[in-house]
Give the backbone structure.
Amino acid sequence: MKIISRRKLIQLSLLGGIASALGSRSSFGKVLALMPTPNETEGPFYPAKDQNEKDADLTQIEGHRGVAQGQHIIVSGQVQDIAGHPVANAVLDIWQADANGRYRHPRDPNPAKPDTNFQGWAIIDSDENGFFRFKTVIPGAYPASGTWIRPPHIHLKISKPGYRALTTQMYFPDEKHNKTDLLLNAKSAAEKSAMIAKNIGQQGNLPIYEYNIVLDLLRK
């Protein structure tokens, strides 16, 4: 293993800090705005009926002995504004299909059997530094039409007074149906990159996906 001297480590640390500072500014010293997270359709399966549990663990429902089917995961990220400032206490309204590709919605035509142990819906807040975290499952792909299979995705609505409300969808990396999805592929390359979460490691046997959100300011 190559040994790096203390002096070299300090130099690298300083360079990293300078590069980070420069990365958020143009050559004229102006702060560059971050691209707002792209909007996406809400879709037809936003929860139609209220439920008691909408906490940050969608894999287990109070009073149920079983847990949700499928691969359990952690989704974490940070809500920021276009200047890169954290947005505290933003409300995140989250809903998705279960591992079978079925929503907890009475009009979902998918013939797959619904997972009665999957919560399906959560409403959480970002913390004082804009961070959020929830536990869920990778949703199943499902047919949107005879020729269109929707890839696994999670719906999110994010709101905070003073910011433009955002409805979007988070996708997963390396999913084969990403390549043919009509909604995702209507976006630019930069927008698609922003909408696809990153697998950043494991917590025990739980894969962790990072999905950061950028809100635009509400202009008067």
Summary: The CA atoms of residues 81 and 215 lie 5 Å apart. The mean pLDDT is 89.
